[in-house]
Amino acid sequence: MSLPPVLDQIRIVLVHTTHPGNIGAAARAMVNMGLGRLVLVAPKRFPDPEAGHRAKGGLSVLENARVVDTLDEAIADCTLVVGTSARTRKVDWPCLDARDSAVEMITAAAAGRTPAAVLFGREDRGLLNSELQRCHWQLNIPSNEDYSSLNLAMAVQLVAYEILCSARAQQGEMAEDTREWPSSAELEYMHEHLRQVLLDVEFYDPDNPGLVPVRVRKLFTQLSPDAHELGMLRGFLSAIQNALAGRSKRRGRSGESP
Ligand code: SAH
């Protein structure tokens, strides 16, 4: 499955990261989830071989990372900014969990509210309140209340995963919109065709059908085939009829009783 283009509109911003290994692991997590835009705000050590080691296949993201001095520079052009935090803060900022945040971000980004940024804080102190207050809402990854602080790169992993799931779900909905749906009349032709085949193969007694025709109708209605699938189903039914006709012809030629 191809990556949803909306992912290109979402950047990950690591603020004042101390350990280069975390930067590398975050880059890898991003690539795994289809995100490619990384911004580093005043990292303590970068570039650094440790970052490269931990990035593995995420090296390209690391090499293309933008390094800036201030958070302002990292998010100046963003129309949506989300700040991640393990703890609730004194100032009651709007807070969503990782899943709801991803849905909101993807919906906004797909509607043209771009670029969007997700901020991740320092390993020791997280994001400062003043930094969180630059955000439209706070994103929290549900975790153990007694130990809620995840490793930075693992937090990036989970947030990026939710973003990818959301983007894929949204892409799926859009793809579904392009499917062609059969009309009610076309569905009736299929039901009639199916009824005929079931009678041909003596699946039920036409004089005493019981609930079978209704159940069959329910089954195929629940299938909700699109126009393409309906065509296939009709072809399938015709093939059964042709096979039956061929068999009775052969029997006729060989003098067998039908
Ligand atoms: N000791 C810090 C936590 C730092 S963890 C504190 O108390 O804030 C480093 C970063 O990982 C955090 O700033 C945040 O961006 C992310 N993170 C870790 N755990 C998280 C969680 N449960 N929810 C959201 N983000 C989290």
* Radius of gyration computed on alpha carbons: 29 Å
Ions, cofactors and other ligands present here are: S-adenosyl-L-homocysteine
Shape: elongated
Largest sheet composition: 7 strands, parallel
Q: Please provide the count of β strands.
A: 7
Major sheet strand order: 3-2-1-6-4-7-5
Q: Give the end-to-end Cα distance, rounded to a whole number of Å.
A: 51 Å
Mean pLDDT: 91
Strand content: 5-15%
Helical stretch count?
Answer: 10
Class computed from helices, strands and strand pairing: alpha/beta
The topology string of helices and strands comes to: EHEHHEHEEHEHEHHHH
Helix content: 40-55%
Indicate the low-confidence ranges by residue numbers: none
List keywords for this structure.
258 residues, alpha/beta, seven-stranded parallel β-sheet, 7 strands, 12% strand, elongated, binds S-adenosyl-L-homocysteine
Provide structural commentary.
The chain is elongated, with a radius of gyration of 29 Å. The longest helix has 28 residues, at 227-254. The protein is 50% helix and 12% strand. The chain has a seven-stranded parallel β-sheet with strand order 3-2-1-6-4-7-5. It has helices spanning 20-32, 49-55, 59-63, 71-75, 98-110, 129-132, 152-177, 184-200, 212-223, 227-254; strands at 10-15, 37-41, 66-68, 80-84, 95-97, 116-120, 137-140. The chain contains ten helices and seven strands. It has 258 residues and is of the alpha/beta class. The structure holds S-adenosyl-L-homocysteine. S-adenosyl-L-homocysteine binds next to β7 and α7.
